[in-house]
Design goal:
- This protein has helices at 2-26, 32-42, 50-74, 77-84, 87-92, 96-116, 123-126, 128-133, 138-163, 167-201.
- By secondary structure, the chain is an all-alpha fold.
- It has one domain (2-201).
- The termini are far apart.
Length: 202
């Protein structure tokens, strides 16, 4: 996959950066670490500029986030309640009132969540779906997504430019970071799910 990413960026420049980051937001397995650090390296040996790579990658992040927000918006509150009112809800031990609690929580803390989750692998993409489900106002969503994405992209592009030909080492370090965070998230989610289901069964 890394060779494919490099080929596209070499061929399409800023458009390739924006397109790949947009895809990375929709399909998290695509590594943003490789895209952004290699983009940073390209600013040292091609016509691409640091500012151009950061802006194009942020635009790509925003486009991907808007698409996922739209999916969350379509998967409306009423549809989720209907799903959880049936057999699916009983199997998962989830009920319509749980949706009310989740939406209420997101209404209170959604702004912080959307911003800070942009720095967490996998979650940085998927957070747009619950934002859409909770019908978060579009303007705050766009501003916070743009701000979080801009910071994340700027840091990685800068590290890639700083490392130069050794950009792949930075990508490797970031990949390790992503793996560690992902493992922690999986453990946390499974633990929370276990205690939640256990309390429901009781």
């Amino acid at each position: 996959m890394q060779n494919w990413i490099i080929t596209i960026m070499n061929r399409f420049g800023y458009l390739g950066v924006a397109g790949l980051i947009g895809l990375e937001n929709i399909f998290p397995p695509i590594p943003s670490e490789v895209i952004l650090t290699f983009g940073g390296f390209m600013t040292t040996c091609t016509d691409l500029t640091f500012t151009g790579v950061v802006i194009s990658s942020t635009i790509g992040s925003l486009i991907g986030a808007i698409l996922l927000y739209g999916i969350g918006w379509i998967l409306s509150y009423d549809k989720l309640c209907r799903i959880l009112s049936g057999k699916t809800g009983k199997i998962l031990h989830l009920y319509p009132e749980d949706i009310d609690k989740a939406v209420s929580w997101f209404d209170k803390r959604g702004n912080y969540t959307v911003f800070f989750c942009r720095f967490i692998p996998i979650v940085r993409s998927l957070i747009s779906i619950p934002a859409g489900c909770a019908k978060m106002k579009m303007l705050p969503f766009l501003l916070l997504t743009t701000a979080g994405s801009f910071i994340w992209n700027t840091v990685l592009v800068y590290l890639g430019a700083l490392a130069g030909k050794s950009w792949s080492k930075i990508a490797g370090y970031m990949d390790t970071y992503s793996t560690i965070v992902l493992i922690i998230l999986i453990i946390a989610v499974l633990s929370a799910l276990y205690f939640f289901i256990k309390s429901r069964i009781r």
